């Protein structure tokens, strides 16, 4: 019984492919399994086994389980079967997409780090601004205190100048009174000189006491002020009283 073989047209019809696709697949088949039989005119003849192998190879390519018919035929020869899932090299488009995703991920990570740094810097600036505002309030408060102190010192200076002027006046009165006492009252030729002298001393005492009060109000140091005027009074009037 003659062996069943397919002509190229019959094999293409059985596989559902074009003649050109069959010719390319036939060359790949012969690379994997050896040369096909030829007819008298040199045309290829396909055995049922060859047609079955080519059918499996075309089906695997169409299903996306292998990259090409050549790969499928090589696997049928070496492994006796085909993979259930796609097993083909990553295309250039996929490589470019993977690279783009990696670069985008790095950029996003870097941007997130920069954003976090900006947030931390913004928080630090807010804290510094709050501290500056608090310091500004303290400066304004200190300015008001200094204004009050300057105003008080100005009042004290005016009071001290007045005290100095009055003391100069009283010094002249005291000197004149001491001279009169040492001269036995001859500087007062009118009657009642002793009475006048007593009145002058009383007026001087009142004036000194008034100056002591004013100086105490201008520069609060009551104990020191009172001791100063007491010593001055004792030195000037101790013998005359």
Strand order of the largest sheet: 1-2
Give the low-confidence spans.
86-90, 190-196, 221-225
Distance between the termini: 173 Å
Largest sheet: 2 strands, antiparallel
Mean pLDDT over the full residue set? 77
Rg of Cα set? 63 Å
Number of helices: 7
Our count of domains comes out at 2
* Structure classification: mainly alpha
- Measured as a percent range, the helix fraction is over 70%
Task: Assign an overall shape.
Answer: rod-shaped
* Residues in β-strands, percent: under 5%
Listing every helix as H and every strand as E from the N terminus to the C terminus, the arrangement reads HHEEHHHHH
Keywords: Coiled coil
Protein name: Regulator of replication initiation timing
Fold and architecture overview:
By secondary structure, this protein is mostly helical. The chain folds into two domains: 8-78, Orthogonal Bundle (Multidrug-efflux Transporter Regulator, Chain: A, Domain 2); 107-237, no CATH class. Helix content is 76%, strand content 2%. It is built from seven helices and two strands; from the N terminus they run H-H-E-E-H-H-H-H-H. Strands 1-2 form a two-stranded antiparallel sheet. Helix 3 (48-63) packs across helix 4. The protein is rod-shaped, with a radius of gyration of 63 Å. The model is unreliable at 86-90, 190-196 and 221-225 (pLDDT under 50).
């Amino acid at each position: 019984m003659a062996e069943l073989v397919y002509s190229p047209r019959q094999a293409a019809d059985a596989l559902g492919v074009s003649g050109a696709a069959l010719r390319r697949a036939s060359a790949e088949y012969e690379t994997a399994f050896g040369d096909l039989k030829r007819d008298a005119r040199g045309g290829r003849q396909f055995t049922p086994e060859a047609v079955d192998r080519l059918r499996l190879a075309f089906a695997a390519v169409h299903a996306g389980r292998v990259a090409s018919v050549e790969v499928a035929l090589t696997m049928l020869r070496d492994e006796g079967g085909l993979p259930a899932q796609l097993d083909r090299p990553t295309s250039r488009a996929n490589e470019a997409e993977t690279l783009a995703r990696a670069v985008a991920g790095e950029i996003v990570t870097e941007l997130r780090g920069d954003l976090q740094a900006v947030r931390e810097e913004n928080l630090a600036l807010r804290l510094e601004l709050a501290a500056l505002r608090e310091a500004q309030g303290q400066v304004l408060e200190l300015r008001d205190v200094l204004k009050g102190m300057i105003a008080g010192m100005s009042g004290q200076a005016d009071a001290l100048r007045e005290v100095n002027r009055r003391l100069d006046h009283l010094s002249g009165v005291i000197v004149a009174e001491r001279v009169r006492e040492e001269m036995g009252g001859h500087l007062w030729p009118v009657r009642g000189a002793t009475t006048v002298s007593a009145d002058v001393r009383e007026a001087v005492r009142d004036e000194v006491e008034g100056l002591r009060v004013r100086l105490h109000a201008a520069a609060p140091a009551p104990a020191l002020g009172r001791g100063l005027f007491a010593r001055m009074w004792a030195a000037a009037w101790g013998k005359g009283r």
